[in-house]
């Protein structure tokens, strides 16, 4: 098992909570089952990474939306 896959499996199997900060969408998707977005509106729980990205794109400042859409499209 490769390092990233082993890490994702270990995080999934861990019985406690983990705060994971990463730019690696694959690692996040494979190891997380709940997502919290903290912004000026407070804390919101999401159930999929796609929901989080949709929210971030919806509130992106003008000019950022195109770059954000490209980033999320690339995965």
From TrEMBL:
Gene3D superfamilies: P-loop containing nucleotide triphosphate hydrolases (3.40.50.300). The keyword Nucleotide-binding applies. InterPro entries: P-loop_NTPase. One of its GO terms (molecular function) is ATP binding. The keyword Nucleotide-binding applies. Keywords: ATP-binding, Nucleotide-binding. It comes from the Bacteria. This is Putative transporter ATP-binding component.
